[in-house]
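## Example pair
The file below holds two records. Each record gives the amino-acid sequence first, followed by its C-alpha cell line.
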Amino acid sequence: MDWMIWIGLLVLMLLSYMDRMKTMGAKSWLLIVATYLACQFYVNLFGLVVPVGFFLGWLYAARTKRLHLAKALVFGLITVLAVAYVPKISLSEIGMAAQIKRETEQFNQIKAVARFTSDSTINADMQAAADTLKKNSPKSTIQADDPHVLFDIWVLRNRNVAVADLDWLWYEAPRELHFYWQSNRPDQLTDMEYVIFHDVGYMGVFKRANSASPYRLQSIYEFDRLKWNQPQIP
C-alpha cells in the first residue's frame, strides 16, 4: 500500500508542474524529483513523525529562492504523513473487502461474518464428519465431499442438532427442522450454499483452485433475511 501512495503522489506532483514544462529544463525536473525524494527522510519519535527531509528542503528552497520547489515540498510532506499514518491495507485485503461487499448486497442485515483459509481446521472437521456419515451409510449415493453436505453439517452442528445420516441430511432434515436450502454455482470455482431458517440464515462460500480440486469453505455469513426472493420455509 505504501508504494501505491508514494507513486500516486509522485505522479500528481509531476502533473502539477505541467504548466511550466516548456520553461523548465532537465536539471529543474531532476531538482524537483530530488526535493520530493528528500522529503521522504523522517524521524519517528515515539509515534510522532518529524519530517526532517521536508525542513531541510524548505531551508534549501528559501535560501536559494527556488520558489517553484514549494509544490514538491508539499507533495513530499503529504507522502510522508500518508505513509506514516494511513492504515496499512494490502491489495489482497482490498480485494477481500470488495468481495465481501458483493456477497453481502443480497442480505437485509448481516449478523456475523467469518473468513477461513483452505488450511483452516473447519474444512478438515466438516470433511471428517461427512466421511464418517458416509461410512455409516455406504449405500447412500450422496457424495461426502459435496459442499451442500459439508455446509449443512456445519449449520446443524452450530445449532446443536445431531446428523443421523447422509440421506436424512439431504432429504428429511429440511422438512423436519423447517429450513430452506439452495446451492448456487456462479462459476466453476465457486459454490455458494444457503441454509435459511425462520429466524436466521447462513450462506457458505466455497472456493477451489481448479476444476479437479475439492471445494474449501472460505466464508460464512449469518444474516436475518434476503432482500429479495425470500423463500418459503417448510
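Second record, same layout:
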Amino acid sequence: MDKSPVPDPDDIRRSFAAERSHNDAVAVNEHARAAVNLMVVINGGAATALLAFANRPEAGPNVVLLFGIASFAIGVVVGALNIRVLTRTTFSYMEAWHSQAHGDQSGADFKFAEAKRGQRHGDAMFLAALISFSVGILLSGTSILLL
C-alpha cells in the first residue's frame, strides 16, 4: 500500500500566503489604476474643454472660469499622486504576505498596517479628486451662466 506523505502545514501556509499576495497585487492594480486613471482623464478633459471655451472672444476675462480650470487641474494632480500611493500600497501588501509566508509575523503586521494607511490615503485622494471635479463643474457652470 502506497502512503503519500502528509503535507507540512507550514508549506501549505506559505503557499497560500504567496498565492494570496499575488492575487491581491493583481486585483488592486487592475481596479485601482482604472479608477484613478478615470479621475485623471475626467478632470483633464474638463479642464481642456474649459480652456477651449475660455478662448472664445465673447468669454472675456472670467475669474470664476479660471478657478474652475484650476479645480480640474488640482483633480489631475491629485489623481496622478494617487497612482503613486496605490503603487506603494500594493507593494506593502506584497511585502506583508511575503513576510507572513516566511514566518515573520511582526514584519507582516507592520507591512499590513502600512498598506492599510496607504489605502486610507488613496481613498481620501480619490475623494479629493471627485470633490475637485464637482467644484470645477459648479464653478464652470456659474461662469457660463454669468456670460
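Notes on the second record: The radius of gyration is 23 Å. Residues 9-146 form one domain.
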